[in-house]
Amino acid sequence: MSDIDRAAPAELAANPQYPATRWVVAGVVGLAAFMEVLDISIANVSLTHIAGSLSASRDEATWILTAYLVANAIVLPVSGWFSQVLGRKRFFLGSIIFFSIASLACGLAPSLEWLVIFRIIQGAAGGGLQPVAQAILADSFPARERGLAFSIYGVAVVFAPAIGPTLGGWITDNINWHWIFLLNVPVGIVLVALASVLVHDSAAYEKARKAKMADGFSIDYVGFGLLIVGLGCLQIMLDKGQQNGWFSSTFITTTAVMSALSLFALVLWEPFQRHPIMDLTLFRYKNFAIANIMMFVLGFVLFGSTLLIPQFVQEVLGYTATLAGLVISPGGLVIVFMMPIVGILSGRLDARWMVGGGLALVSISMFHMTGFDLNTSFSQLVFARCLQTLGLAFIFIPVTSISYVGVPPDKTDQISALVNLTRNIGGSVGISLVTTGLARRGQYHQNVLVSSITPYDHQTQSVLASLTQHFQQMGASLESARHQAEATIAHLVAQQAQLMSFLDDYWILGLIIACMVPLALLMSSGKEDDNEPPPGAH
Question: Number of structural domains, the chain?
């Protein structure tokens, strides 16, 4: 038996702030995080149905996604501040209640305008659920159990965006789009009932919070304003950039400049505030800084690839939405199966090698996808997705655990808020990059392929003649057969250009992830976690 195992009973006995029901608490806060993260992607495949039902265009309907992401991004980093002001339990319960009410309003919205407004409220209410759930886990478990506890949370935040589009499509096809939002209401009621009984702020946490408030706790209005403008404009720029032609658009250029100036001013302002809205001084801790870079990459890959793979199989291979979901779903099951195993291993293996190995697996899976073609089988697609999610499972838990190493325990709320913000921003950047890459590389390959198809090219003439003869044999006239042959060639060119653009995106993602592998070696081994002082609250 290891020294850690022998010390565990004494640690738990000496620190009653670790609740006896902590594993049930982990399930409750994990479900709350799952519900919130699910709503980031669950409406993606239903936009056409929502737009048609509310008499709006599909481009107008994309504000349903943007509104949620903007509000979510603004609240995420300040959730630690709200926890200090309101108390962690009250803030957690309030977030679930307002999220559920906003979900009900979204499901009953009479117009697109009202739906967007309710999505803003929903995103703002849900913004605190991820970081507060993570903070509750960090403070409810001793160091030796924290990795396994984070595995429950990891299943929520990694599996939810993977299953979201599939679940949303199924609900839309078999019931109606309103239930995408209404589904949260009964779940929210159950969560409020359970959290009211199970989740508590410890006496030490509440005492420290009240002492801080009595010490002249003030609201950082300037920092909050800069944060709203900076993150709001950044999210809008990333979400609408490709649609508006990026910096050829005055609107996108304006949002980019406003975001850059606001965030730069925020970085200069916050370190000098007594009660900052965001504690940016945490980035002086090496593990925390590296963990945020890793989380950015995790969000980048998770959300970017979750967007790419369903589009690839539907647009290039002609799969139905259901089959596309079946390609994605096994990867989600791998995460569910592997997270507890990785949680157990994280207390026994060097975190640096686990993260490095996970990054390597994800990179290999992306490079493997560059070999896809029009004859790629369903089993090959599923294997590549499962290999990718296997790697992601080995990244999330060690990186999350290491972000707390060496950082004062009273900074738990701020740590979880910033780590979750970084992952979400990484996801937005990943989606934006792969979407832009598909459009631009697709056009590039189209131009290159078309330039080689000329009346003077022998191979082109041979294919055209063969296809014309084929359509004539099917009963078409010579002129009609020739038009059909030309249309077939145009379709093949467009299909190949589209395929090549997806392969380019896979290659870029694989290269970016491969470059992150050496960075994992700069992190802590994670062993310091065994000797950290116990947290002051749960």
Answer: 3
